[in-house]
Amino acid sequence: MTLLIILLAVLALIVLISWGKVNTFVAFLLVTIPVGFALGLPPTQVLSAVQKGLGDTLGSVALVVVLGAMLGKLVADSGAAQQIASTMIGAFGTKNIQWTLMATGFVVGIPLFYNVGFLLMLPLIFSVVRQYGLPAVYVGLPMLASLSVLHGFLPPHPAPTALVVQFHADMGLTFLYGLLVAVPAIVIAGPLYTRTLKGIVSRPLASFVAELRPAGELPGRANSFLSSLLPVLVLAVVLGLQAVLPARGPLAPTLAFLAEPGVVMLLSVVVATFSLGTAQGKSRGDVMETYAAAVRDVAPILLIIGGAGALKEVLLASGASGQIAAGLSGTGLPPLVLGWAIAGIIRVCLGSATVAGLTAAGIMLPTLAHSPADPNLMVLAIGAGSLLFSHVNDGGFWLFKEYFNLSIKDTFRSWSMMETIVSVVGLAGVLLLDWALPLLRHA
């Protein structure tokens, strides 16, 4: 019954938004409240769950999304994105642009959280699209596949790190195995799959598509790269220091503060205000107007993400994840496949990769204690499952849809299918490693 209610909720959202042309945030509220009643929550608890879901979701992403939008718009308007795109195309050529952006996303995605990396890379993607007349989804999706896979598979991202701790896995081995699984998943879901998506028409959010400038008016190459990628550099330095310094040393609190995505983005915006703003001849008023325009553009997106968070919280409050997981735990599937399946179904039903991964971990922990399954591979199997089929109850789905300005149908065809391919190929890679590792140990 729970699965049926969730399915009807998803269908209702699609009908309201696509056919009824209802504002997406309003559609979420119109669906979320009846779903709470249908799942047995009393009226006061439904409203509390909606408010908590909105508050928790916006509290976790609003700072990063707003500051990321500010930095992204300044990078676009200043010509820095155009300079970076021209440099990369000059070095690698337009024929290799997908692979170039995919590799860039891979490097950026190791230290950065997904939302930060997404917003940081958008101006670069859209500058390439504008300068060279390439399809936006075809160009951008391989880079986003890199960011998504690393977010789901590899430490130091929150969910994989938490799973490593819960399963008493080895952080280094998990990272190494994760790289072996991640690379083929990204290649298949990125450059290979997106060859089928060239026909998708995308008109990216205008805020990040700046007018092309003469080469003489662009910021310098070093300034463009350093200002745009400063969040990556800051986080890489901070994570490196955390790895070599004592965990409880005198610098630990300061490093933990500096590792917060919101702090990193704020520092980057402050630096870019000078390096890409006033140092390029802009007045402070002009730079602030750029930031104000960015906030106006992302406000509707924040509401949509908050609406998805409200629906997720109502499903959590009703105990839906526990019911689904309990129904799957007695299937007799091999442990690695079972962990993937539990995480995947919870992800599809609730929309949150983190919730799916942590819920699946709690269920699989007792099973793993009586199983020969490698805990490092269990982390990766659950991580792969937690990325399965992102759709209308996931904030990432709406972030991609709204910025790339796609229909729901085309977002399913591009974003949702990319995430599904990543998940399935990830499981295949984990099972291949599970078969190969004992042979290598005895070779």
From TrEMBL:
It comes from the Bacteria. This is Gluconate transporter. GO terms for cellular component: plasma membrane. It is found in: Cell membrane. GO terms for molecular function: gluconate transmembrane transporter activity. The chain crosses the membrane at residues 30-50, 57-76, 96-120, 132-154, 174-193, 225-245, 257-277, 298-317, 337-365, 377-400, 420-440. Keywords: Cell membrane, Membrane, Transmembrane, Transmembrane helix, Transport. It comes from Hymenobacter ginkgonis. InterPro entries: Glcn_transporter. Belongs to the GntP permease family. It is a multi-pass membrane protein. PANTHER family: GNT FAMILY GLUCONATE TRANSPORTER (PTHR30354), HIGH-AFFINITY GLUCONATE TRANSPORTER (PTHR30354:SF22). The lineage of its organism: Bacteria, Pseudomonadati, Bacteroidota, Cytophagia, Cytophagales. NCBIfam families: gntP. It holds the Pfam family GntP_permease.
